[in-house]
Write a structure and sequence with these properties.
The termini are far apart. Strands 1-2-3-7-6-5-4 form a seven-stranded antiparallel β-sheet. It is elongated, with a radius of gyration of 23 Å. By secondary structure, it is α+β, with helices and mostly antiparallel strands.
Length: 299
């Protein structure tokens, strides 16, 4: 093959390698090794779980985790100097993409205490556990002893994991549609039955106290414009039984206001593949403002 043609082939191959997405690392390959935290020994081989065996790791929670497109998990046990029955466990979940990892984390942090580790992290189980996420991975740590030695080591493990996990620190695209001003830690990603409605799914939500004491907003993404419009029409049909519908102009492709018996001031609208709703707002104006802000952020 002439050199100039070979050079073109090699250049094309190089560009292909550059543009190909990197393969995901298995959770087991991300586990800390012995002495990652000095003096702490990993005991035995890591255990690996898939969707069929996840119940062996978290029996009562497996179904909830699998709602977020769970792929695999691994766990390992660490003991100081390799001696004693007390330990720290590290569990890593591969959730396929950052939005799913955040979604599972957003359930873990309900009522938990946030801590400054990695992208986001919180203390769980009364302070004897830590949950954190980055990229497509969620990490849960748990200490069986509440001594200062164990709790400090668990925090060190969390910091090591934050540095080791691959992935961006940028929030997922759908999460960025939520306007500023949300109550800290109230953002969630919910796959099904958002706000108690089967037709609202795949949504990010947050609380907005500035719009009303219990005001909240959701932004739901659908696979097509027709699916989003269908969800909008379902919501409209539901609210016709709860109050007088007031059509709104200038909010998405269609929108309405209703004073709902349960959700109070409600504004629902759709734009492209997205359905947006403000619930329990203090006033119609506050609800409209939230929805308009979210609409402006929709890509």
């Amino acid at each position: 093959m002439p050199y100039r043609y070979l050079n073109h082939v090699l250049t094309a191959a190089g560009l292909l390698l550059i543009t190909m997405p990197a393969a995901a690392l298995s959770p087991a390959s991300l586990l800390p090794v012995t002495n990652t935290v000095p003096g702490w020994v990993r005991m035995g081989l890591p255990k690996v779980y898939n969707s069929r065996t996840l119940y062996n790791l978290i029996d009562g929670e497996a179904d909830a985790v699998k709602q977020y497109t769970f792929l695999s998990a691994t766990d390992a046990r660490y003991v100081p100097h390799g001696r004693g029955s007390q330990s720290i466990t590290v569990d890593i979940y591969d959730m396929e993409n950052p939005l799913n990892a955040f979604g599972l984390f957003s359930q873990d942090r309900l009522g938990a205490q946030p801590i400054n580790v990695g992208v986001e992290a919180c203390k769980t189980a009364g302070g004897t556990g830590i949950s954190m996420w980055k990229g497509r991975y969620l990490v849960r740590l748990a200490a069986t002893a509440q001594t200062p030695e164990f709790l400090h080591a668990m925090l060190l493990f969390a910091k090591k994991m934050a540095a080791r996990l691959p992935g961006t620190i940028e929030p997922p695209t759908l999460l960025r549609t939520l306007p500023a001003g949300a109550k800290p830690g109230s953002q969630q990603y919910i796959r099904e039955n958002v706000a108690g409605h089967s037709f609202v799914r795949n949504a990010v939500t947050a609380r907005y106290p500035s719009a009303g004491l219990f005001a909240s907003l959701f932004v739901a993404e659908y696979p097509s414009l027709s699916a989003a419009r269908s969800a909008y029409l379902d919501y409209l049909a539901y609210e016709r039984n709860n109050g007088r519908i007031v059509p709104l102009k200038g909010i998405g492709q269609a929108g309405f206001f209703v004073l709902d018996r349960f959700a109070h001031d409600v504004v629902i609208a759709y734009k492209g593949r997205y359905l947006v709703g403000a619930l329990r707002a203090g006033t119609q104006i506050a609800a409209e403002h939230l929805v308009k802000e979210a609409m402006a952020r929709i890509p």
